[in-house]
Amino acid sequence: MVIVGMGCARRPMNVRAPIQLPALALPILVIPRLLLLLISPVKPLFVDRYVLYSSIGFALLLGAGIDGFHKRRLSSRTSWVAALAVLAALLPPTLYLRMPQSRHDDVIAIGNAVRHAGRPGDGLLYLPGRHRVWTGANPEDTRFLTDLALVQDPTSSNTLAGVELPAHDIPARILKFDRIVAVRDPEGAPSDSNSQEEAKTRTLKRYFRECGATRVTGARITVYVRKVSRGRSTPCGG
After folding, report:
1. Which of 25, 52, 197, 235 has an alpha carbon 20 to 30 Å from 165's alpha carbon atom?
2. Where in the chain is the domain with CATH 3.40.190?
3. pLDDT tens-digit profile of 88-127?
4. CA dihedral 127, 132, 135, 136 (to 10 degrees)
5. CATH (one of 3.40.190, 3.30.1490, 2.60.40, 2.60.120) for 107-226
């Protein structure tokens, strides 16, 4: 995209009339958000960072509005009132965006919860697998755990969440472990429906019992132990 943009910038333009600012700013502001919203019912793709750049359109429109106030040659008092009104409108969302509460998920807290819940040799499951990106920021959080469903990591597969095993291979891999740390959506959140996620959930429900959960912003870290292992139940303590 950068190369295309540089090429367009160097190409001479034969434009008879200048482009009006609203014709430039409104598409930048609206189109990216609209496209992602329209696609989301088919495949959820709407993430705030994907449309953050479109705020440039709002900045252009806001700048045009301020410039319009200036060109009207209003009194100094009126200009200050207008500037303070803009500041008062923008300050609350600006501060909110810089607070942890503005995030749908807190990857630092999630990583810390996984590290404290897991013990060396435990299995690790992501439900669903796309949540593997939550712990990707700090590999130390999962260093001593075995990612049970992963067959190809994100780096080698050139993907965000890696490639998982086929559904029919997942149960056998899970049953090799007596203690598993599961990284899940919060309670009540809609879950992904595919054969791999169903295999994980079905195996946990049949052969494991829940030993406790830690809830953080946007996620739930649950520890599971085998109901019966080598003739005895596995205690929650390990």
Report:
1. 235
2. 107-226
3. 887 887 787 777 777 777 888 999 999 999 999 999 999 9
4. 180
5. 3.40.190
